[in-house]
Amino acid sequence: MNEELAFYIAETTELMEKAIYSLERELIKIRAGKAAPDMVQGLMVDYYGMPTILQSISTIKNQDARTIVITPFEKKTIAEIEKAIFQANLGVTPQNDGENIRISLPPPTEERRRDLVKQAKQLGETAKISIRSARKEANEAVKSLIKEGLSEDEGKDGEDKVQQLTNSAIAKVDKILEAKDKEIMTI
């Protein structure tokens, strides 16, 4: 296989893997009734005027299946952490006892679970769009290589390989979404 063609295929593979990874990271934030520290770990908190990731200024753990406990290293930061949780629009209300912040997750209603499934599907569609965009860019690169002298057969093989990558990536997205839908709809 031509070196440039191999480069474009490797680049396309990487872009598709990034789209899937991004989908997985975003789906973690969709709560399915179970408390997961991942829901809040990426939050940015105003820490002495600097945006700082929550886990670098506190410990985050599960107290039980429906409660997350955030223990800041400095008690002064509790108000800022609460503010960050509200701004993240997670649909939860943090409770502050002066030393810890507790986030209790009520079991979602049937309507809320359906909304969460729709939200997950939208994230999945965004990932699929990214994958298709990577395919389009790769196919355009292959066509430009053909114009520069790459044989038609190699170009066709390259396009077939890109399509196989696309089919595989979209199948992974569908599998991930199916698992998330099942998790959300399970009470």
What report would you give on this structure?
A hairpin with a 4-residue loop joins strand 5 and strand 6 (101-104). It is built from five helices and six strands, in the order H-H-E-E-E-E-H-E-E-H-H. It is elongated, with a radius of gyration of 22 Å. The protein has helices at residues 3-28, 38-41, 78-87, 110-147, 152-185; strands at residues 44-47, 50-53, 58-64, 67-72, 94-96, 101-104. With 187 residues, the chain is an alpha+beta fold. The protein has two domains: 3-28 and 109-185, Orthogonal Bundle (Topoisomerase I, Chain A, domain 4); 38-104, Gyrase A, domain 2 (2-Layer Sandwich). A four-stranded antiparallel beta sheet has the order 3-4-6-5, with helices on one face. A two-stranded antiparallel ribbon has the order 1-2.
H/E element order: HHEEEEHEEHH
Counting DSSP E segments of at least 2 residues, the number of strands comes to 6
Tertiary shape = elongated
Annotation field: number of helices: 5
